[in-house]
Amino acid sequence: MLNKVFIMGRLTRDPELRRTQSGTAVTSFSLAVDRDFKSQSGEKETDFIDVVAWRTTAEFVSKYFTKGRMAIVEGRLQIRDWKDKDGNNRRSAEVIADNIYFGDSKRDGAPAGDYGSSYSQPAYGAPAGGYAAPMGSSNGFAEIDEEDGDLPF
Which of 15, 49, 85, 126 is most open to solvent, judged by the fewest CB atoms within 10 Å of its CB? Predict the structure, then answer.
C-alpha cells in the first residue's frame, strides 16, 4: 500500500505550537494550494488543505513559518471520523507531515535565521525524532569571485 502526498502552498495563518498531555509538540495549519487549471469561468481555484505536524517538525514550523509563507509538505493523507457537538458523524481529511521545506526565499524584513529555498535546507521528519539546526552564515561555503576563470568543479 502507498499513501504519500506532496503539496505546496501558502500558510493561511500562523502555526500555533501546542503540547499533548504527555508533552509532545503538535501544530496544525492550513495551506492554500492553487489548482493547475482554471474553472469554466476562467478563474483559478484554490484548495485549503489542513496539515498536522508532530514533534520536531511541529517545533520547526512554529519557529520559522508564518502566514503567507510558501511551504512544501511531504506526508500522508489521513481521514478522521469524529462527532460534532450535536452528535452528528463528521469526517475530516488532513495531511500528516513527515517533512516540511521552505518553498520561497527569505523575505525582506524576515527575522534572522529565516532561510529560503535557495539554501540547502535540512528536512525535519517527525518519525526521525532528531533535531538539526538550520544553516547560518557560517555554513562552510566560500564565495567564488565571478572574474576567476578557473572554477573548482
Answer: 85
